[in-house]
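In the laboratory, one determines a bound structure by crystallizing the protein with its ligand and collecting diffraction data. In a computational setting the workflow is compressed into a single prediction: the sequence and the ligand go in, and a structural description comes out. We illustrate the idea with thymidine-5'-phosphate.
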Amino acid sequence: MARGTFITLEGGEGSGKSTLVRELTDRLTATGREVLATREPGGIPIAEAIREIILHVDNTAMDPLTEALLYAAARRQHLAEKVLPALERGAVVICDRFVDSSLAYQGYARGLGIESIWEINRFAIESRMPDLTLYLDIEPEIGLSRLEAGGRTKVDRLDLEGMDFHRMVREGYRKVAGMFPERFVTLDASVSQQDLADKAWQYLSDALARL
Ligand code: TMP
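The predicted complex, in structure-token form:
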């Protein structure tokens, strides 16, 4: 069994995951721990290439099951090539999105079924689940308006989805939270970045002391 600690961050668009990854990485590094900050889909060249295919605006013909399988394939490669070796070394891995994204986006919002998506992902990750998942909960309207205000430059295929899709994603996350209460923590992401980081840090420190 790996010695490290596997932390994932989840949330809808504009929930502040990337900023929180940086903040938690800085705080953890200051304690002397080895920290690996990474993201899905991507984090390594093969998975970044799969990300390009999934999110390319031209790929509107992509079948929803193909999309789900590509996310699972990117996840598998990233886990095997980057996350597991880091955990073996005893590092703390902070990953921006993991299996819960597929459960909420593909399983629930796309309507493929949380159970079916869980099946393909369980196969892909060989049941290696996070030790702690911080879910940044925010109204989709607020999240998306933050992205606009931040002057986002790149639009991907999922950005073309309407507000109903993003509401479904949020509902999906609530269902996933109910499935995994032992590792899933819901944080109110409408508060200031500082307050969110402080709250997240409390949960992270507790988990590190416990695990
Ligand atoms: P990002 O914008 O957080 O980098 O994520 C890229 C997009 O991919 C985002 O819209 C969420 C979506 N996504 C899924 O639909 N399923 C998944 O399993 C993952 C990891 C991401």
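The chain has one domain: 5-210. Keep in mind that any predicted model is a hypothesis to be tested, not a measurement.
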